[in-house]
Design goal:
Radius of gyration: 72 Å
Largest sheet: none
Number of strands: 0
Distance between the termini: 10 Å
Length: 285
């Protein structure tokens, strides 16, 4: 048998075997990498799911906190508005009470002033009428005195025996003097009465003017002050909660890649058969 042919067959078998070993190592390395990639993908998918759930929980917690904060702000605003309303209402009620007290006081002062004016006018009128009455009484006393003096004078003339002509002249002179005095007295009484009437008219005018002044300073009815506008509830913003997670949010699970196949013993056997056939052919020659 040819040694070179045997060496050639051995070399061929060794080469085929080496190729298979190299293919096996490459396949093992690829499969190991595929397993590591699959494990990484599974872990990444799991962590992605955990992150998605954590993000959703954080978003929902944020939603709840925003609602709670919005409600707190609205409650605080409502409380401040109510406090302001009560303060404005207390001021309004105090002003209304003060206005009504001033109005009643003004009416009381007006009524007292009018009553005082009435009393003062009556007192002044009584004083003037009293003066007139005293003048009339004095005039009546003076008239009585003159009449008495005239009677006494007439009696004295008759007692002295004055003749009729002289007595008549004396009586005429006495009557003339008495008539003149009565005329002067009547004129004085008329003048006094006119003076009193003018004084009474002045008193009436003064009373009317004083009443007008009192009425001018009288306070008008303040009426009813408007109430402060009641506060309305603070509107609250609406927030939309995050939607529930669905299966499609997590995506498909990782798929393991196809396993790589190493070298085949069939190829080694084929190489061996092929080499043996070549050796047989060479042996024939």
């Amino acid at each position: 048998m040819n040694p070179w042919a045997i060496a050639t067959v051995g070399a061929t078998l060794f080469s085929a075997y080496s190729s298979k070993r190299s293919a096996d190592r490459a396949a093992d390395a690829q499969n190991e990498a595929t397993e590591r990639q699959y494990g990484y993908d599974l872990k990444l998918h799991e962590m992605g799911e955990q992150k998605l759930r954590a993000d959703w929980a954080f978003a929902y917690d944020t939603y709840e906190k925003r609602k709670e904060t919005e409600q707190k702000i609205a409650d605080y605003t409502d409380a401040m508005n109510l406090r302001r309303y009560n303060y404005d209402l207390s001021i309004r009620n105090a002003e209304q009470k003060s206005n009504m007290a001033q109005f009643h006081k003004s009416n009381d002062l007006y009524n007292q002033q009018v009553s005082f004016n009435q009393a003062a006018a009556i007192s002044a009128a009584d004083a003037e009428l009293t003066k007139l009455e005293e003048i009339n009484k004095k005039a009546a006393f003076d008239t009585e005195d003159r009449i008495i003096k005239a009677i006494q004078t007439e009696g004295q003339l008759l007692a002295r025996g004055v003749d009729g002509v002289s007595s008549q002249k004396a009586m005429q002179a006495l009557l003339f003097s008495q008539g003149t005095s009565e005329a002067r007295l009547a004129e004085s009484l008329v003048s006094a009465e006119m003076s009193v009437n003018k004084a009474l008219e002045g008193i009436a005018r003064d009373k009317y003017g004083a009443d007008l002044a009192a009425f001018a300073s009288k306070m008008l009815d303040p009426g009813v002050l408007p109430y402060p506008v009641a506060a309305i509830d603070t509107p609250i913003a609406e927030f939309q909660a995050p939607r529930a997670l669905e299966e499609f949010d997590f995506g498909p699970e990782p798929v393991k890649g196809a396993r790589a196949v190493g070298g085949s013993w069939l190829s080694v056997a084929s190489s061996a058969l092929s080499s043996a056939a070549e050796i047989g052919m060479e042996g024939l020659w």
